[in-house]
Amino acid sequence: MDDSVHSLLPVWACLASLLAVPAIVLFRREPVLREGATFAAGIAKLAFVLAMLPVVLSGKTVECTLVEGIGGFAAPIRFRVDALGLLFALVASGLWIVTSLYAVGYMRGLREHSQTRFFAFFAVSLSATLGVAFAGNLLTLYLFYEMLSLATWPLVAHHQDKEARTGGRTYLTYLLGTSIGFALPALVFTWQKTGGHVEFDSARAILAETNLGYWPALLLLLLFVFGFSKAGLMPFHSWLPGAMVAPTPVSALLHAVAVVKVGVFCVLRVVSGVFGVEILRAHDLGTVLGWIAAVTVLVSSLIALSQDNLKRRLAFSTIGQLAYIVLGAALLSERALTGSALHIAAHAAGKITLFFCAGAIFVATGKKYISEMAGLGRAMPVTFAAFFIGSLGVIGLPPSLGLISKLHLVLGAADANRAGLLVVYLVSTLLNAAYFLPIVYQAFFPRGAAAADTPKFSWRGVREAPWACVVPLSVTALLSMGLFFAPGVFLKLAQAFAAGVTP
Amino acid sequence: MAEQLPALILLAPLFGALLVGLAGPRDRRVCFPVVLGALAVSLCSAVGVLVRVLAGGPVDYFVGGWSEPLGIGIQLRVDTLNGLVLVVIAVVFVLVGVFSIRRAGEENTEKSPQYYTLFLLLAVGVFGMTVTGDAFNLYVLVEVSSLTGYALIAMGSSPRGTVAAFNYVVMGTIGASFYLLGVGYLYMATGALNMAQIHEIVATTGAGGSRTVLVAFILILAGLWTKMAFFPLHGWLPNAYGYCPSTSSSVLAPLVTKVYIYVMIRVMLGVFGAEWIFEHVGWTNIVVWLATVAILAGSLLALAQTEVRKMLCYLIVAEVGYMVGGAWLANRWGMAGAVYHIVADALMTLCLFLAVNIIVKRTGRLRMDAFDGLFRKMPLTMAGFAVGALAMIGIPPTAGFFSKWYLLRGGIESGHFEYVAALLLSSLVNAVLFFRLFERAFFGGNPAGGHHPDRTAAESGPTQQGWVGDSTLLGGEARASTLGPLLAAAALVVAVGLLNGPIVSAILRYFENMPVLGAP
Questions:
Q1: Is A344 part of any domain?
Q2: Closest to B395 (Cβ–Cβ): which among A71, A113, A146?
Q3: Domain limits for position A304
């Protein structure tokens, strides 16, 4: 094809963090050098990703084959960077740098153990994330998907106590169980049906010709969607609240951005690159997927209302927001797909801020429960202001990128003539507001007994977390706001993706 | 010289065994160079033959030039199928040879020359079973490899090993007798012992319809299934491999069952012929169900084990089910998957057994608590173990993933979804098995009561925040002669995985003239 550019850039972008691992291990006694390696890798990674931006914005793709497929049946290991992949890579690699700074503050603030292991596996996870983002076919996608599950497990079970181990076991059971049990057979089935083609667009072309029946198509779709359970669709969601035992930087980047977005990214890839909009429309499979996602949206929002542990509330909120993205893909209209892709970025900016805030509160005060946080806004004004902005992003209120993505999703639902699903979006937005805004309100304006205990605001009473925690959360909050005014690159990438896959 | 290569594969270890047997007891320093030299010759010859086969088709070799098919002219024949298996066997032998440099001496202080003699004779037997083109000759070589195998198992100091070896002798002899009986019937019906000749007679004359041939097939299959520990004929395996000396288990566990799988495939395709098996006999459904049961039983029994090495032994039983099932799916993907899995499984089992043997030796414990905190103490050994384990689970890009990939396709294409489900379930069970060990290895044995950052900080101190407890990164590692083969095996597991395309396309080309396996 003439609109593809061969380049090793995707490989370097993917490897940058993996190559930092030996340095991280080597400098395990010199924390400054060790974290230096992390930052160097982060900046290099972002630079490699940015270097591909002009090519992709001009409508081309960047391709690179690592291991050739032989004789037309063996799937090659291949990278192919298109608009969607680049959007995701940009979000993940950009936020990694911020998170690394936050992680330094958090881990040192709490004097955590095994920090080298933590930073090493964090770097491996980022490599796997970019591998998924740049995967050119299902096999490569699966390879990096599994790598991500394995590399994040030591991070989830980091605390090594009983609770952490249980969380880690749940995490692996769900993620490996569904990927081996559902996604792998779906993969082999696709490979067999298409006669060995698992490249995204050629698989779609061949599947369209083979005229899969309704039931096989439905089964295949469900196997894929539940197989990539990182997307957190119910009933395969409970690994995510369990994973909240991890240190907060992990929850922030991996379980609000990288890992979970890999899940929805895979679903988007399968919907757009393997099935294609035509087949899904012809069999009306979008409706099935849409209602599965809709149920997840509503149920998870309701559960979130009842959670007192802040990180768990955020986790259930994440499950709901992920289902937004899947729902957008299921609507199969161009604007909804734009919204889905854009929501990857919008939710990332908002939710990472919220997690940073939760972690900062924990570092500064040791408090994990929302009921303990009444009046805390006066001691930590910056943190709670950022929390407010992050909430706006997730709810979809101005000024935040969330508004733009949600607007696209809602309009996309209207385009697709799905009034029921449109109502789901609106109701869930109200629920989002209901589980976030009271936290902020109580923090600044406590009532009852808490009001009596809370001193009046004074600059001397401010007890923020270490600067390494506060700076990142301010940066991401500002980012979430700033992207409302200048969504340029992300919006362009999302639109390019949606235009490319809808007829 | 080049045309002598098939014989050289066998002769080098045979004469090596003689030399070690004669000179070893006088001066033990002779043993190791001779062993490694002989096996290196075999490896080079095997690679040379495989290259010739891939370039110019099957290579025939008539021992002593007796090409006349009458009498007991012995034919060696190498094609893509056994060329691959030969190379893998040679690789495993060389790696275990290096592994045993000091191990053999430590475990059998008095007997190391005898150990090496048996080790080389085992190589002769296993190479011979793979390379021979004669059904009776195969029996002889089965006995050569079995007898040496019994002795290698009984050599250790553990009394349970001796009992297990006796058990194995009984079961193994029954299996071999079944095979011999089958060959006898086959000779009655066809008057031939050469595999190619039998195949021709079965395929072209009316002999294929005779009941004698059918009985012969059943007897041979029963014999081979006993020898390969196909569930429920697996009883001898776990104790035999679980309690024998580490050097013996490292070579027997990866090779013996796999070679019998190869022999079964050879008998199916090369002696009776794929058409006869799948169209005339047609027990595909029954055997695939048996294989499904074998996979599930092996996995569940593995789950019930408390000792790591025995857990691996039951995994071998499950893996045998994979390959028997794949071979009987009656399509080329299943068959190719089974052959590829012979290669993959030999390497990953080698990897796991080497790692576990190192760990058991180092910690002195057989149970799972041997793994407590090992990622900190022995990072490289654990890395090798992890590669083998991930291959067993089937995580890309290891070889274990790709063999499953092809076997699954075979299962889906032939509509045997019970086999597909069993494969997936066994992967999940393997995940549970190995992550139980990984959890111990990463996080230690005893979970602390709660999350106390202060406690851990006090333990590790502000300056020492790394994951390495002692002063050097590799301070607790095993010595290079045992670690090297492990890491080489791990690298091969990944390399064979990445090279799955060329390997499988060579295997598929071999099935081109077997229309019953499906059009390419």
A1: yes
A2: A146
A3: 284-503
DSSP A461: G
Query: What pLDDT score does B470 carry?
Result: 41
Chain B residues near residue A169 by CB distance under 8 angstroms: 435, 439
Q: Min CA distance, B431 vs chain A (Å)?
A: 8
Interface test with A, best of B414, B434, B467, B471 (most A CBs within 10 A): B467
Q: Which residue of B has its CA nearest to A180?
A: B424
pLDDT at A461: 63
Residue A459 makes CB contacts below 8 A (sequence gap 6+) with none
**Which residue has tokens 């029963």?**
B222
User: Which residues of chain B have a CB within 8 Å of the CB of A135?
Assistant: none
Q: Do B439 and A31 touch (CB under 8 A)?
A: no
End-to-end CA distance of chain B: 36
pLDDT in tens, B478-511: 777 888 899 999 999 999 988 888 888 888 888 8
* Alpha carbons A318 and A333: distance in angstroms, whole number: 23
- Cβ-Cβ contacts under 8 Å for B96 (sequence gap 6 or more): B247, B250, B251, B350, B354, B485
* Candidates B428, B453, B457; nearest CB to A177: B428
SS3 A147: helix
Query: Which chain B residues touch A162 with a CB distance below 8 Å?
Result: 447-450
- Partners of B77 in the β-ladder: B60
Say if CB B252 and CB B313 are below 8 A apart.
no
Q: Does residue A439 belong to any structural domain of this protein?
A: yes
Separation between Cα atoms, residue A457 and residue A377, nearest integer Å: 9
Q: Is A276 left (phi over 0), alpha (psi -120 to 50) or beta?
A: left
The answer to whether A163 contacts B504, with C-beta atoms less than 8 Å apart, is no
Helix (H, G, I), strand (E, B) or coil at B343: helix
φ, ψ of residue A308 in degrees (nearest 5): -100, -30
* Pair of tokens at residue A495: 């639109």
Residue A459 pLDDT exceeds 70: no
Residues of B in contact with A67 (CB under 8 A): 498, 501
Calpha distance B409→B496 (Å, rounded) = 19
| Contact criterion met (CB < 8 Å) for A191 and B409 | yes
CA dihedral of residues B332, B334, B336, B338 (deg, nearest 10)? -150
Pairing of strands B75-78, A77-81: unpaired
The shortest C-alpha distance from B449 to chain A (Å) reads: 6
Q: Which of B404, B409, B435 sits opposite A192 (nearest CB)?
A: B409
Contact residues on chain A for B396, CB-CB shorter than 8 A? 139, 142-143, 146
Are B247 and B99 in contact by the 8 Å Cβ rule? The answer is yes
3-state helix, strand, coil in chain A (%, to 5): 80, 5, 20
Q: Is the bond preceding residue B6 a cis peptide, omega within 30 degrees?
A: no
Question: HSE of A491 in the Cβ direction (CA atoms, 13 Å)?
Answer: 14
With CA atoms as reference, report the closest residue to A405 among A332, A480, A491.
A491
What's the CA gap between A303 and A354, in Å, rounded?
A: 18
Number of domains in chain A: 1
How far apart (Å, rounded) are the C-alpha atoms in residues B215 and A480? 76
Better-predicted residue by pLDDT, B265 or A61: B265
pTM of the model: 0.88
Percent of chain A with pLDDT over 90: 3
Cα–Cα dist B56/A340, whole Å: 56
- Give the minimum alpha-carbon distance from B48 to chain A in angstroms, rounded to a whole number: 23
Q: Does any domain span residue A171?
A: no
Phi, psi of B518 (to 5 degrees): 100, 150
Q: Residue A166 domain-assigned?
A: no
Q: How far is CA A111 from CA A356, A472, B462, B464, in A?
A: 17, 19, 7, 11
Q: Which residues of chain B have pLDDT under 70?
A: 1, 67-73, 103-110, 445-475, 519-520
Alpha-carbon gap, residue A288 to B246, rounded angstroms: 56
